[in-house]
Amino acid sequence: MATLTLNPALDMTVRADGWQPNTVNSGQDMHLSAGGKGVNVASILADWGVTVTATGLLGAENAGSFETLFRAKHIQDAFIRVPGSTRVGVKIVDHAKQETTDINLPGLGATPELLKALEAQLDELTASHEVFVLAGSLPPGIESNYYARLVAKLRAAGKFVALDTSGPALTAVLNADTLPNLVKPNNHELSAALGRELSSEQDLLDAARTLLTRGADLVAVSQGEEGALLVTRDETVKARPPRVPVVSTVGAGDAMVAGLVAAHLDGLPLPAAARRATSFSVGTITRLGAHLPPRAELDAIAAQVDVSVLKTSDRLTV
Ligand SMILES: Nc1ncnc2c1ncn2[C@@H]1O[C@H](COP(=O)(O)OP(=O)(O)O)[C@@H](O)[C@H]1O
Ligand SMILES: O=P(O)(O)OC[C@H]1O[C@](O)(COP(=O)(O)O)[C@@H](O)[C@@H]1O
C-alpha cells in the first residue's frame, strides 16, 4: 500500500508542564520526529508489518530524519525532493494537564514542475499498489480540488482510497462526484467542511450516512478522547478508548487511519476494525512520535476498547 503526504512536517514536541500563553515558560524536554499525516500512517502500518511505500513532496534540506525513519522501518521512500526545508510542526505538551497544543505551518510551496514529477510518480505507484492513503493538508501552490481529482482517478483505476484531510481540501472531496472508500475526519473537521455545526452525535451520524449514500464505504468520525463513530451502509459502531496517561495526542488520528487500513487489508468486520483502529490510536498517544507499542501492550489496550454496535435508528446521547 502507499501513502501520499503533500505537506510533511518535522514535528517538534516541547514538553512544558503548566505552560501559560503570554508569559515566560520553562520547558522540560524537546523531541523532533519526522511526521505529517501520510508519513505517520506509513510509520504505524510498517510497525504493524505492512509493506508500505511513502510518497509526496519532501524538503531536500532537512530530509535526514525522514530518511532515517524510512530506513529503520523498511518504508519504501518514493518522495519527490523539493528545494528548501520541510516545515516544522510545533507541538506543546503539558503532561500535568494532559493537554496538547498544535501549531501547524503552511509548508513549502509546490511548483507546476514538482506537481508534474509527482504525477508521474503517482502513475507509477498506481501500476503496482492497490491501496492509497491521501493524508494531510495541501501546501501552498496546490489547488483545493487536488485530492478530489486524485480520488476520482484512483477509484477509476479500481484502487481502494482512504482520505484524511481538512479545510477546503476536505470540502472539495466531500462535494465531488466520486468519494473515497474511507474518509476519517474528526468531528470539528467534518463540521467545518460541511459548513454547519454538527453538535450532537446524531448530527455526526446523519452527516456520515449522507456521505455513504454518495459513494463512501466507511466514514470514521473521530472525537478525541470521546472515541469515534464508524459508519458503513450496514452498520454503525461507537468505539470508546480506555483512559491512558497521554504523552502526546499528535498522530492519534493518523494511527486511527492506519488501524482502519490494516483492518481493511485483513478484511475485518466493522466492530473488530473499530477495536483495532482505536487501539492503534491509544497506543500511539502513550509515546512520542507515531509508533505502535509492542504487540502485548497493544493487545492489552485493544481488550479495553469499548465497542458498541448501534442500530441504524439509535439515537445517541452526547
Ligand atoms: N486523550 C485521549 N485519550 C484516549 N484516547 C484518545 C485521546 N485523544 C484521542 N484518542 C483516540 O484517538 C482517536 C483519534 O483522535 P482524534 O483526536 O479524534 O483524531 P485527530 O488527531 O484526527 O483529531 C480517538 O477516536 C480516540 O480513540
Ligand atoms: O497536514 P496538516 O493537517 O497540517 O497536519 C500536520 C500535522 O498532523 C500530524 O500528522 C498529526 O496528525 P493527527 O494528530 O491529526 O493524527 C503531525 O505529524 C503534523 O504536524
Automatic annotation (TrEMBL):
Pfam short name (any one): PfkB
Domain Carbohydrate kinase PfkB as annotated: residue spans: 20-292
Catalytic reactions of this protein: beta-D-fructose 1-phosphate + ATP = beta-D-fructose 1,6-bisphosphate + ADP + H(+)
InterPro entries, alphabetized: 1-PFruKinase, Carboh/pur_kinase_PfkB_CS, PfkB_dom, Ribokinase-like, Tagatose/fructose_Pkinase
EC number(s) reported in the record: 2.7.1.56
UniProt enzyme class: transferase
UniProt keyword list: ATP-binding, Kinase, Nucleotide-binding, Transferase
A GO molecular-function annotation: 1-phosphofructokinase activity
Source species, domain of life: Bacteria
Nucleus recorded as keyword: no
Keyword Nucleotide-binding part of the UniProt annotation: yes
Function recorded in the entry: Catalyzes the ATP-dependent phosphorylation of fructose-l-phosphate to fructose-l,6-bisphosphate.
Family: Belongs to the carbohydrate kinase PfkB family.
UniProt name for this protein: 1-phosphofructokinase
Protein species of origin: Deinococcus antarcticus
Biological classification of the source: Bacteria, Thermotogati, Deinococcota, Deinococci, Deinococcales
Underlying gene: pfkB
